[in-house]
Amino acid sequence: xxxxxxxxxxxxxxxxxxxxxxxxxxxxxxxxxxxxxxxxxxxxxxxxxxxxxxxxxxxxxxxxxxxxxxxxxxxxxxxxxxxxxxxxxxxxxxxxxxxxxxxxxxxxxxxxxxxxxxxxxxxxxxxxxxxxxxxxxxxxxxxxxxxxxxxxxxxxxxxxxxxxxxxxxxxxxxxxxxxxxxxxxxxxxxxxxxxxxxxxxxxxxxxxxxxxxxxxxxxxxxxxxxxxxxxxxxxxxxxxxxxxxxxxxxxxxxxxxxxxxxxxxxxxxxxxxxxxxxxxxxxxxxxxxxxxxxxxxxxxxxxxxxxxxxxxxxxxxxxxxxxxxxxxxxxxxxxxxxxxxxxxxxxxxxxxxxxxxxxxxxxxxxxxxxxxxxxxxxxxxxxxxxxxxxxxxxxxxxxxxxxxxxxxxxxxxxxxxxxxxxxxxxxxxxxxxxxxxxxxxxxxxxxxxxxxxxxxxxxxxxxxxxx
Length: 467
Fold this sequence. Notes:
Elements: E1 4-13, E2 18-26, E3 29-35, H1 39-42, E4 48-51, E5 56-59, E6 61-66, E7 71-72, E8 75-76, H2 81-90, E9 93-101, H3 108-119, E10 126-132, H4 138-149, E11 154-158, H5 169-182, E12 185-189, H6 193-205, H7 212-217, H8 220-237, E13 241-243, H9 249-260, E14 265-269, H10 271-275, H11 278-281, H12 301-312, E15 317-318, H13 351-360, H14 366-380, E16 398-408, E17 427-437, E18 440-444, E19 447-448
Parallel strand pairs: 1-4, 1-5, 6-9, 9-10, 10-11, 11-12, 12-13, 13-14, 14-15
Antiparallel strand pairs: 1-2, 2-3, 5-16, 7-8, 16-17, 17-18, 18-19
Helix pairs in contact: 4-5, 5-8, 8-9
């Protein structure tokens, strides 16, 4: 009995169903569901009973795009795997997929081993890895096959950041051809970095060095052009493609066109593109530096097209691209030179609440909320049905969510290891109350009961959407 938990009286919301049901958890997994008030539910017994009356019972969130401890621009992302996964749990996310980094001149294995060492024993929730491929050569291509076999089934490439992560079209094509054969999924940062560098140089020549120019030089058309190019390279290679952090309406149009052609092309956006804009980049003084990320924030008119894309399934996933840098001492590295501001925003704790606010605001349905934040990322990256749903046999990653509680987002109350909130002062309706990770309470009635080392590494199968 001691390893059993029953959640009673809540509205169970998954990507496909909503039902008032009791949930029986045994040995870290969902054992059974039964409609509340029925004899079957009444037969559920456990030492731990959680009353979810008036609450939602939802799968733990799957954030498929985080960067804990990422080295960037001479510094490191301010969240460690310990602080970042704890904050994720506070926000109702129970699985992250972080990015291991291959450095130029090094092997994929060296990069993966480095990230395993960072994460092992430090995570409050379960985790997996994608692999950033920075150096495409024959050895790298062979290693991609080996990584897929052991559960690292997605590879990120960059059309941006020349001299750091950048791959040229030939390198991208070769990696895509390899993934077409081994079942891996290429994830693409789609911005024309070569052209952007020219525009950065020209902006500085005009004396334009404030944070707002970060968004102006990283033009929406250059995101769209790179998205189009990535799609056509993937088509040539016969490979699937997942475009990360889509921010521009023109890029959404490229994805929609490709999907209408029947191509295996997928798109992700992030809360910052749905709720923030170039107005934030233009905040007075150096405040705009807080909002420097790539792809950049866009003018507000892009938001409607992103929401539309989420409703029409031209965009399938909302991840955070959580990559926090403190304003003091880190973002400040770019005072007088926007190109030196570390790129990234904090958000792993805010995603589930912001998307619930989108339900309240009428942008998406409750089930679509769970689909884009839990089920689809789990399916996209080979974690479903272990993660992303509430069904017999699934891991008992479960969130009791109060849809009526109100909160104000603030650096004063968040748990991310960063000295500002990108959503400071924003009022939202809905809040995480209790979080179970594999049946164990990590957040219990708004108290942290988890610990570093509970989270385990989770190998992944290949993308479950390929036709």
